[in-house]
Structure formats: C-alpha cells, structure tokens
Predict the 3D structure of the following.
Amino acid sequence: MMLQLDPQIPMITPKGKGQCILVIDYSEEHDLKWVVIQDDTGEVWAWPNDKVRGFKNVTMGRNSVSKIS
C-alpha cells in the first residue's frame, strides 16, 4: 500500500533534512518506507523506520529527537 501525504511531513534523514511525500507499507513483516525528497539535493530516497526522525515539536510534547544510527 502507498499513501501520499498531504501535507508533507518534514523529516530528518541520514542525508539531512527533507520532506516526506509518500509512505510505503509492504506488510506487517516489513518496516514502513518513508519516501523523502532531500532539501539540499532534491534527491528522492526511501528510508526505513529506523533511519528517519520527525523534528522536535514542543507543542506536541516532542522535546527532543534521538540520533539516527
């Protein structure tokens, strides 16, 4: 299943900041894939769950964001 995000979600990836435009769900046996357009380069990457982070958002109670391994 593919889900187009509207609005897009700003994310942090191993290649820097970007905008997530799609989420791909292959099944319960697999991680989601977050399709992100990288802000600096315009490259499009599909990242698994453990490689992306949302931004800090104090209003939503997300006071810090863990580092990407």
